[in-house]
Amino acid sequence: MSEIALPTDRSSDELDRLASLAEDVIRRARAAGASQAEVAASIDTGLSVNVRLGEVETVEHTRDRGFGLTVYFGQRKGSASTADLNPDSIQATIDQACAIARYTEEDPAAGLADAALMATDFPDLDLWHPWAIDTAGAIALGQRIEDAGRAHAGISNSDGAGVQMGESLSVYANSHGFVGRERGTRHSISLSLIAGDEAGMQRDYWYDSVRDAAKFMDARALGDKAAERTLMRLGARSLSTRQCPVLFAPELARGLIGHLVGAVSGGALYRRASFLLDHVGQAVMPAWMNIAERPRLIGGQASGAFDAEGVATRDSALVEGGVLARYVLGSYSARKLGLATTANAGGIHNLIVDAGSADGERSDFAGMLQRLGTGLLVTEVMGQGVSTTTGDYSRGASGFWVEQGKIVYPVEEITIAANLRDMFRGIQAVGADVDPRSHILTGSILLDRMTVAGE
């Protein structure tokens, strides 16, 4: 895209400034009596433009700063934060954190992660790709995207095109002497369109999200994709209540894996609020399934050399041969459970869900439709009807009814329901049609059956 250019890059200087400030604050917190201290500081900048019907709706430039301090007086913890980095505000933040810690109850699990676990190598993971697009360029790009979508016969209106540029600089430091610097970019383009016929109006969208703007899909192609998806929804109908196989499109399949992550994460486990409590070493998925975390994936959406506590990240299996290999823990939740951190303070890193099936074959999206045969393809879910505690899953949905591997008609106003325990065990295949726009990298997922409730 012609708007892409390399800006003057001052990110290293900004990171050095944040690191120096963090180290100074830690020294001052220790001088005030803290036995341990940690600082997380960040600067986020961005540009967001929205265009609708060819006209500019919003333009927003952002520059947000954050500075958070946590201190420990033994096993008493206090935290305070500020968005103002002037000396008086920083001193007030130190005073507040220390005051809080002096009056909180002791928590045996409180404290920094173990010093021996701190990251010591910081490879370039190719996460920094500044996009020197200005407001005029972003508006022009949004207009091209929208024009491409609106050019399709049957598209009657637009909810608008969006162009977002984002840069993030962050430093994490603690009193072990660890100082970790990270910088990353994330850019996106999107379009939402509306079409109508005698049966009513339909809306759909498409978007692309990348670290490097040079890797965006073509503006016209994104407009075409959004229009195609919108027009395919015309004539949608409901279904009678039934049980049938269900295929989750790749952009929704990652949500299923996200529910797995939520159920095996520390907070749910030590509160004993997970249907997968005490399931490490047990089969939770079919024997052919493998899911692995790859935190140092080059250019990954959630790559990092260390977690939010400075613990070095490493490749590891989450599900191996269908068996849950481990939980997802930071140091606090690990101590609560009597286990070791898995370097997941702050969340999971890149998850790779291997494509495959019981017969060993890998299928593209067309092949996954053939595997589905006759059943429901889900392309949108709505509502929050998922319980990590019980595994119950019930959500509004829309998509397409499929017969003999071919899409027959769109469906809407239905509910899909099952239990996550049965859904995970009932996975029939994972497609090779991976959606790269997320830190959960999976293709479409075919389930043996769910209850579909409609008319």
UniProtKB/TrEMBL annotation:
The gene is pmbA. Belongs to the peptidase U62 family. Keywords: Hydrolase, Metalloprotease, Protease. InterPro entries: Metalloprtase-TldD/E_C, Metalloprtase-TldD/E_cen_dom, Metalloprtase-TldD/E_N, PmbA, TldD/PmbA_N, TldD/PmbA_sf. One of its GO terms (molecular function) is metallopeptidase activity. Residues 129-234 form the Metalloprotease TldD/E central domain. SUPFAM superfamilies: Putative modulator of DNA gyrase, PmbA/TldD. Gene3D superfamilies: PmbA/TldD superfamily (3.30.2290.10). It comes from the Bacteria. Residues 241-454 form the Metalloprotease TldD/E C-terminal domain. This is Metalloprotease PmbA. Residues 37-101 form the Metalloprotease TldD/E N-terminal domain. It comes from Dyella ginsengisoli. PANTHER family: METALLOPROTEASE PMBA (PTHR43421:SF1).
